[in-house]
Amino acid sequence: MKKGRELKNLPVIEISSGQLLGYVREIEVKENSRLSGLYVTSLSNEICYVPWENIVSIGRDAIFIKSKEDNQKVESVPVEKTAYCGSWVMTISGKNLGTIEDIVIEECNGSVVGYEISDGYLKDFLMGRSVIAQADVVTYGDDVFIVAD
């Protein structure tokens, strides 16, 4: 499993030619709680979108894709919130657990398996961040994730 921030700045390589296409700039997660694609900045500073279907593997040090022809050139990375970072996390009984700081992704199938929660800088430093499982999420919106007690 990888955190979303661990994917950023990884090199993206076309597996058939061994060509370095660029580096991951941003990830995109759709409402089905699955990684839907990556925004990659090429060596010539062009931005392209790599859909999940084009990704062969996500490794520790690089991401391999099938073909650079299957990527879509885009003008810019959408300004939307990425993977709900900054959203509050509250239990169904109304207890505030903190805010979402990152997502946890299963590399083999691109599914979001959990969310890393921050409860403030000092608590993060002293006790570490907690992770809630995707299965514990009851519902969510743009502002608040509601999880089981």
Automatic annotation (TrEMBL):
Q: Where is the PRC-barrel domain?
A: 3-71, 87-147
- Per the record, a Pfam family? PRC
Q: Entry's InterPro entries? A: PRC-brl_dom, PRC_barrel-like_sf
- Source organism, top-level taxon: Bacteria
What is this protein called in UniProt?
Answer: PRC-barrel domain-containing protein
Question: Organism, per UniProt?
Answer: Thermanaerosceptrum fracticalcis
